[in-house]
Write a structure and sequence with these properties.
443 residues; alpha+beta; 6-stranded mixed beta sheet; 3-stranded antiparallel beta sheet; globular
Length: 443
């Protein structure tokens, strides 16, 4: 939902930070799914963050030193015939009235009018490499300044990434943004709980996926923030498994990594549970080890902490546990130094979360890992994955995949776990799994 005052506040901060520079932010293009069918459109996060404008074929220009137009939108014109097929457009008038542009133009006038906003600017903030055709247009404008200096005012002589300013703004969430993220996490927690309650052997992974995504939409989310992962049995050991087409067998673990998106803000939650409601001895040993590491990591996610330190703590706990269970050879320090643990734990413990699932912002200041600060939201998601063909372990351990992931807001006094409502204690999981019938399930 577009909230003009919030976007206006962000623009003011951004324009002040730009100083003498100019920024050009093009919209994401519509993407073809197949033939003449397109994917559901999702606006570019940077452009949406500053404008709230949700349509393709748009360009936002921010020119703080222009005497009249600091915020300019180039948009598709109104077209009654196309709007019958594809939906309403804001058009030039709507870009001003609804989205707060100082002035707006037809997108077809971009090349003609853009130089008026680049004149006198020393640095252009623009992300190269995302759209080759648009890159050529931008470079063409810059080259025209170099080749026609006698006839034109000075223009940009360098290009920098918009993220130098904009992504640092996005990294620390406002209370309005946190409200959306809490709602997204709450919807995700409800969906995970419903999936646990409905799960039973004999269902297919896609049935669980359907339940989860139905809960997202029913509770007001636009849908999933990323492709939902529903991995059962050996599929739970595949990090980005998305086929979701296997029949869930008695004795399987089920791993769901699925998060709702609310007003384009993401959640990212993972839970793992036994399909029949009872962990085997080996499953429980791996699950409790991952849970121990995850609880410790959440507790360590506080102001001043560094994400690499949190990850290192997870690695130590998991490695020590794997040595204790006989799945890795010790000593623990040697296993860490030789990275033998990576056979079972091959990813980092977390990432930033926001408008993008893997959200923007620097993880390091130079070569030093940056300290977490209040307002940052990160995931905490350790896991262990023992492939079904892993010959280095006894057969009873093979095919066990466990990941537990929460969304954690760093606060001034510690942290807030946005996804705490999704059960993760063994007793709570075993009590919930299979306790209700699946809606529409034939099982």
């Amino acid at each position: 939902m577009h909230r003009p005052s919030i976007h206006q506040s962000r623009r003011r901060r951004y324009l002040a930070a730009l100083g003498m520079d100019v920024a050009v932010l093009p919209a994401s293009p519509a993407r073809v799914r197949s033939n003449d069918s397109e994917y559901r459109y999702r606006p570019d996060s940077d452009l949406y963050y500053l404008t709230g404008f949700p349509e393709p074929e748009a360009v936002a220009v921010f020119a703080p030193n222009h005497p009249e137009h600091q915020f300019v939108l180039f948009v598709r014109p109104r077209d009654p015939e196309r709007e019958v097929w594809d939906g309403r457009r804001a058009g030039v008038d709507g870009a001003v009235a609804q989205y707060g542009a100082d002035i707006a133009f037809d997108i077809n006038e971009l090349d003609e009018r853009l130089p008026a906003y680049l004149d006198g600017c020393g640095t252009l903030h623009y992300q190269m490499g995302r759209d080759e055709a648009f890159d050529r247009r931008v470079l063409g404008h810059l080259n025209s300044y170099r080749t026609s200096r006698r006839n034109k005012p000075a223009g940009p002589t360098s290009i920098v990434e918009p993220g130098e300013i904009l992504h640092e703004m996005r990294l620390v969430k406002s209370e309005d943004e946190l409200e959306l993220m809490r709602r997204a996490a709450s919807i995700s927690c409800a969906a995970h709980s419903e999936a646990m309650a409905a799960c039973r052997p004999g269902m297919f992974e896609y049935e669980i996926e359907a339940l989860v995504e139905y809960a997202f939409r029913r509770n007001g989310a636009v849908g999933p923030a990323y492709s939902s992962i529903v991995g059962s049995g050996p599929n739970a050991t595949i990090l980005h498994y998305v086929e979701n087409n296997r029949r869930i067998e008695d004795g399987d673990l089920v791993l769901i990594d699925a998060g709702a998106e609310v007003d384009y803000f993401a959640s990212d939650v993972t839970r793992t549970w036994p399909a029949n409601g009872t962990f085997t001895r080996e499953q429980r040993a791996i699950y409790e080890l991952v849970l121990e590491a995850q609880v410790e990591a959440v507790a360590a996610t506080v102001p001043g902490a560094r994400m690499q330190d949190v990850h290192d703590g997870v690695v130590r706990t998991l490695t020590a546990g794997l040595v204790r269970l006989g799945l890795l050879e010790g000593p623990v320090d040697e296993a860490i130094a030789n990275a033998t643990y990576r056979k079972f734990y091959m990813h980092k413990t977390g990432h930033y979360l926001g408008l993008d699932v893997h959200d923007v912002g620097k993880y390091k200041d130079g070569e030093v890992w940056r300290a977490l600060a209040p307002g940052m939201v990160v995931t905490v998601e350790p896991g262990l994955y023992i492939a079904e063909d892993c010959e280095d372990v006894a057969p009873e351990w093979r095919g066990i995949g466990v990941r537990i992931e929460d969304d954690v807001l760093v606060t001034a006094t510690g942290n807030e776990v946005l996804s705490a409502a999704a059960p993760k204690a063994v007793a709570d999981i075993e009590r919930l799994v299979g306790s209700r019938s699946a809606v529409g399930s034939g099982t």
